[in-house]
Amino acid sequence: MDGSPLRFKATFGNEANTLFLRKALQALIKSETPIKEVKFDKNTFEGITRDGRSGIFDLACTDDNDNHFIVEMQYGDAPYFVQRMNGVARAILRLA
């Protein structure tokens, strides 16, 4: 899979034109509502899970109904994914 991370970033990480990314995310979450905006966030919440790992919010999205959601995109294996998402959820609740 040599070069795959670069292809992944070139396909999904184009901040100048997010049309393909927005359409792909909409299909992935099986939503009838188009995604109108994707912001590439690099915010890290340090040590929010039990094992001290951080959660990185890669994409902050807004759909046409003004629903907001966060997408973490990662190329490769994601050990402790459920634990990380539990920590991310707690961090979001603290911000609300």
Helix segment tally: 3
Q: What characterizes the major β-sheet? A: 3 strands, antiparallel
How much helicity do the residues have? 25-40%
Element string (H = helix, E = strand): HHEEEH
Number of strands: 3
Cα-to-Cα separation, first versus last residue: 40 Å
Radius of gyration, whole Å = 14 Å
Mean pLDDT: 76
Query: Given the C-alpha coordinates, what overall shape results?
Result: globular
Number of domains in the coordinates?
A: 1
In terms of DSSP E residues, the strand content is 25-35%
Helix/strand structural class: alpha+beta
- Report low-confidence residues grouped into runs of 5 or more: none
List the strand order in the largest sheet: 1-2-3
Model description:
It comes from Runella defluvii. With 96 residues, this protein is α+β, with helices and mostly antiparallel strands. The chain has one domain (4-95). The protein has helices spanning 4-12, 19-28, 81-95, and strands spanning 35-45, 55-63, 68-71. It has a three-stranded antiparallel sheet with strand order 1-2-3. It is globular and about 30 Å long. The model has no long low-confidence stretch (mean pLDDT 76).
Secondary-structure map:
Blueprint: H1 4-12, H2 19-28, E1 35-45, E2 55-63, E3 68-71, H3 81-95
Antiparallel strand pairs: 1-2, 2-3
Features:
3 helices; 3-stranded antiparallel β-sheet; 96 residues; alpha+beta
